[in-house]
Amino acid sequence: MDAASLPHEDLAALLKWYVDHGLDETIGEEAIDRFAALPPPAATPPPITPPRTAAPTPIRAPAPPPAVRAPVPLESPQLVEDARELALRCTTIAELEEAVRAFEGCALKRTAKTTVFADGVSGAPVMIVGEAPGADEDRVGKPFVGVSGQLLDRMFDAIGMSRQRDLYITNILFWRPPGNRTPTQAEQAICLAFTRRHVELAKPKVLVLAGGTAAKAMLDTTEGIMRLRGKWTTLRLDDGTEVPTMPTFHPAYLLRTPASKRQSWLDLLAIDKKLEELGVKASS
Ligand code: URA
Predict the structure, then answer these.
(1) Ligand 1 in contact with 153 (CB < 6 A)?
(2) What is the DSSP secondary structure assignment for residue 66, as one 8-state letter?
């Protein structure tokens, strides 16, 4: 029985099953039936025995290589170098955004609908770096616009800050991993080259790393978010600048574990205090 002849409820159940298993993207117009019987191998023609009297066959020159260059494998360390070089050449955030949008070296771009670069005010005192766009962000083209983004907005609103005025928001990754899977080390390393430059160009007074993936990648550590959160650390950038940095829980984690909101509130108060000390913000 093919899918088209299934009753409506069965099709709906099948679709739900796909989504529950993380298959929420269609990559091609037609589904590929990988279970379909493979075509039988072509029959091998019997060897041709040259007649005894035939002249020896001249040796043919090997066929020239195909004109198209083999694509660089998408896990290649060279891609990280390419990304670093491109990022370094950018001297403004607008140039960096253009370079990221034009970059073809990250496999995630092939399955994402949009490039999600940043939201908020570039040059704002607080820059927030999350992990990667989800389905909502991929659709809208802006970071943190789904439910976890709404919680992030409410959290910063509690200390009198908004993305329209005081926050600049981005992610380590600019493209949504299919089905929200964890990005590979290679994907992170490639995008990180741009994100580090992004921080250099945005020059925030304070950097907030939302969640374990962002904290580990930006701080180049294997330490988990449980140990990192709530403690100020200094991020040293490649241009020599240093940014006070606060790792904190990801809002998506807080939605799943509301009891941890208490710790996040302490992190927000510490951010508020630091901004006051730096003379960026009046006490709220
Ligand atoms: N989670 C993230 O880390 N970033 C987003 O933009 C949305 C959800």
Answers:
(1) no
(2) P
Q: Is the CB of 251 under 6 A from ligand 1?
A: no
The closest-lying atom of ligand 1 relative to the alpha carbon of residue 148 is 8
Ligand 1 centroid–CA 198 distance in Å is: 17
φ and ψ of 28, to 5 deg: -130, 170
Under CATH, to which class is 77-275 assigned? alpha beta
Report CA(49)–ligand 1 centroid distance (Å): 67
Residues 6+ apart with CB under 8 A from 90: 96, 98, 99, 197, 201
Record the pTM. Answer: 0.77
User: 128 in ligand 1 pocket by Cβ < 6 Å?
Assistant: no
Q: What is the distance in A from the centroid of ligand 1 to the CA of 277?
A: 29
Q: How far away, in angstroms, is 172 Cα from ligand 1 center?
A: 9
How distant, in Å, are the alpha carbons of 51, 129, 191 from that of 223?
A: 74, 17, 20
Query: Could you give the count of Cα atoms lying within 13 Å of 62 in the half-sphere of its Cβ?
Result: 3
284 residues of the chain, pLDDT tens digit each: 566 677 788 778 777 777 666 566 665 555 655 455 455 545 554 454 444 444 445 555 555 544 554 555 556 788 999 999 999 999 999 999 999 999 999 999 999 999 999 999 999 999 999 999 999 999 999 999 999 999 999 999 999 999 999 999 999 999 999 999 989 999 999 999 999 999 999 999 999 999 999 999 999 999 999 999 999 999 999 999 999 999 999 999 999 999 999 999 999 999 999 999 999 988 76
Check pocket membership of 120 for ligand 1, CB cut-off 6 A. no
Per domain, the residue ranges of the chain are 77-275
